[in-house]
Design goal:
alpha+beta, Pantoate--beta-alanine Ligase, Chain: A,domain 2, four-stranded antiparallel β-sheet, 2 helices
Amino acid sequence: MSLAADLAEAARDEMERACTLAWRQLRELTPWGDTFDGFSPGGREVSFERSYLWEDEPGGDIRVEVHVYEPENYEAGIRLTRVIKRETV
């Protein structure tokens, strides 16, 4: 598996995990971010960054950002973004 395909698969997997929480759960944590080291589906050592940020204003939609990269090659990583729409409370 190529590096790009491996990182893309790892990023998609991480995004799915990142979006398992509902807006109501995330509103208490946002803004928040974390970086941790792990392994890609192809067995490469990679770093995972996950962030939850307010899309436009606090209390609105939440932007989820995921970045997966080899520790020595941050710029060549894969970035994904998704928005979790604000629930009516």
